[in-house]
Amino acid sequence: MTARKLKLFGAVASISMLGMALAGCGTEVASTPVHHTAAQDGSQPVYGGTLNLDVNGAFPHLDPARAYDTLSYEAVTQMYNGLVAYKGATNTIIGSLASSWTVSPDGKTYTFHLRNAKFWNGDPVNADSFIKEFERVLTPATQSGLSGFINPFIVGSAAYAAGHAKTLTGMTSLDGGKTLQIKLTTADPVFLLVLAIPAFSAVDPAYVDGHSLDYFDYHPMGTGPFELASYKPNQQWILKKNPNYFIKGIPYLNEIDFTNNNSAQAVLEHFEQGSTDLIAWNQGGIPSADYLPLSENPKFSGDIYKQVEVSTLYVGLNSKVGPTKNLAVRRALEYAINKEQMVKVLNGRAIVANQVIPPSMPSGYEAKLPADATYTYNPGLAKKLLAKAGYPHGFTTTIYTDNTNPDDVSEAEVVQQDFAQIGVKASVNQTTWGTFLNNNETGKQGIFMLAWLEDFPDPSDFLNTLFNSNQSPENNSTMYSNKTVDQLLNEASVMPNGPARFAMYKQAQNIIMSQAAWIPYAYPLFTAAVQPWVKNYYANPNLVDDLQSIWLTKH
Amino acid sequence: MADVMMTPTGLEQRLAYPVKKSQPRLVRLLRAYPLVFVGGLIVAALVFVALFAPVLAPYNPDYQFPNGLAMNGAPLAPNHQFIMGTDDLGRDIYSRVLYGARVSLEVGVFSSVISLFIGTSLGIIAGYFGKWADSVIMRITDMMLAFPLILFVVALVAVIGQSVDNLFIAIGVLGWATTARIVRGQVLSVKEFEFVQAAKALGSPNWRILLRIILPNIMAPVIVLTTLSIGNNILLESTLSFLGIGVAPPTPSWGNMLAEGQSIFEYAPWLLYYPGLALLLAVLGFNLLGDGLRELFNPRRVR
């Protein structure tokens, strides 16, 4: 997903087509609802209490099909459940509303056995709850940005999305609704990971059909641990515990209060005074301006939780627009950037990046890149290469960035300054996040500051989504296009998981880096501030805050 | 001093009212209006700094020093290398404050001059010709005054683009209303003077009356107003930079330095102190100077 501190997930992400199921080929996976027990310090869960959070803005969407940014996810994750979920802070998939499932030997048919769960209004969860949601995601009128995850991989999805079919033929309800069968066009081991994405949660067909799209966007009906009890538009949202949650024993909290507040100063004060309990994904991590006051203060430095994001911050260099059209120019610019300085500007909450895939990705990160894909900070060399490329006096350009997160503007200014050292005169064009993203997705920005956060832990999520020419211009907004890379990516997507497949991604990344489509500069760290009375908080790199697992002790 | 006087006949006479030996004019004025001189000095210093910033500044204001940030990425407090400290990108604040004077002065002065021209022209037309010209112009002026100036300027800058030139054009073109009002009032009163009636009776053409008679007699308050508005416009530029639509990075302006510094005030207050102080001095200087000019036109002032 396209990421920045107030994040928006990628508009259309493709999944790779692989030969083997992640959980093992053709095996039955039984799982039990997760019971969360003692926290690391050995304390026992305490029931009750209200969690007070400052949110960074109004939730753009509460409809899982339309929610594709980290802010919306903060609410949607607490209110809806899918077939499967991630276990704790790991990448392991366990059953959620599905108690178990089987995968056919050819990897194309998934059969899920559903639990006895109910929506908040008492309606039961069955296969139709999922078929309904998948159909909604595919329907153009819903304007879901996530249809690319299942279209055209589920049989009949393309026809349904185009309006040629009235039903989604690839999904069937069996055993009177207790079993859901999904047929794929080819085998795909990341399919289970895709199912964990909130867009593919269970919705109540009767409720959805009985209300308009916009109504459902602000009046959710889910199975989740928390229900939306009340809200004052743009001011406060109150979630209350679902007493009939299908996982017994949780949630521990009675209530979650989200209050709209995006002033970093106020967020800090509230935390220091103890009136809020957590600064986490509700603020997109600890706001930059608050990080040093917290980390340097011995009273609060122990409250800081850190997690490596599976994410890369980069400067995009457009292959079709501006002087960066020229490969030699792009390669020259790679040597101009002082990445150490850029990481310092982030108060060290990142490590220097040298490639597209971050080291926290389970596979795909290369410990050593080939020589033509390796760049060091060398402004003298950059200037020389630029002259050789035909720009001995540099050139004039614009760096596009958003200003919703002040860090992005700061980093743009560092890049601007680095470019100035080699004769490239750049002006910084800053707009709010929404406007910036809309413009970026046209593929017309010559040089821009952006980031990508994983949708799921597989190199295809980065390489295919961002560099396959069929993903331009929305996701591949650098308009990168290379026939060999396309071939490698498309082939790897139908290969079985294993060294051969990863070798293809490695080759693709090496070409992409040698062609300088991006200047990756940092792999960021997600930081959260957790009050000492909040127990069992963790952040899963694929998710936002999982508030059903935390409890509050007396304070 | 001379309270004893020699009469023509050689007698010494003690005066009832001692005649003070007159001091040099400058000293007289200085003692009467000390603050005006302070204002004048400040403005002169400002102009000097703005003109000679490249010579006065120890470093390039845009340069991000590798050693300009602490280990944890925080800005450096004032030290012997950076006498006003560094900002969040490791740039020298002292150099940026000096260069910031250029932007502030440029925007403040030029926008006031533009407002002066537009406002005076419209005010004269409205006041002198009266009738429908007056009605139309005054209604337009009312509308301009009713609208918050910042909103207008934000909208205009969004259309014409963000640059220092566009900034003072936008402020100048939208800020003429007060000047027009005052000029019109002045013209209305001067119009009734007898020498104006006389000139009209003698058949003097309008343009001559406007140029030779009306204009010189209304300029006093207008000049004062313009000087005072320079201070206002400098503040307006800071507000706009603070809002993010003023001067674009990396060019330093006191306003955008304040904007960058306000979020990390807790652990790096010097980012606010120095540009804030500079802003204070500039506005103070122009206001005091404006006051002084007002006094200059006062017939009862100390001479």
Structure description:
The complex is a heterodimer of chains A (555) and B (303). Chain A is α+β, with helices and mostly antiparallel strands and 555 residues long. Helices cover 26% and strands 20% of the residues of chain A. Chain A has helices at 70-79, 127-138, 157-162, 191-195, 205-209, 213-218, 264-273, 288-295, 327-334, 339-345, 379-388, 406-421, 433-440, 459-467, 483-492, 499-514, and strands at residues 29-30, 50-55, 84-86, 93-95, 98-103, 109-114, 171-174, 179-183, 226-232, 236-241, 255-260, 278-279, 304-308, 311-317, 350-352, 396-402, 425-431, 447-453, 518-530, 534-535, 551-552. In chain A, the strands form five sheets. In chain A, strands 12, 13, 14, 15, 16, 17, 18 and 19 form an eight-stranded mixed beta sheet that branches. In chain A, helix 14 packs across helix 16. Chain A is globular and about 70 Å long. The two termini of chain A are 38 Å apart. Mean pLDDT of chain A is 88; it is low at 2-38. Chain B is mainly alpha-helical. Chain B is built from eleven helices and two strands, in the order ββααααααααααα. A two-stranded antiparallel ribbon of chain B has the order 1-2. In chain B, helix 3 packs parallel to helix 7, helix 3 (93-129) runs parallel beside helix 11 and helix 10 (254-262) runs antiparallel to helix 11 (270-296). The two termini of chain B are 20 Å apart. Classes of the chains: A alpha+beta (555), B mainly alpha (303). The interface between A and B is medium-sized, with 29 and 20 residues.
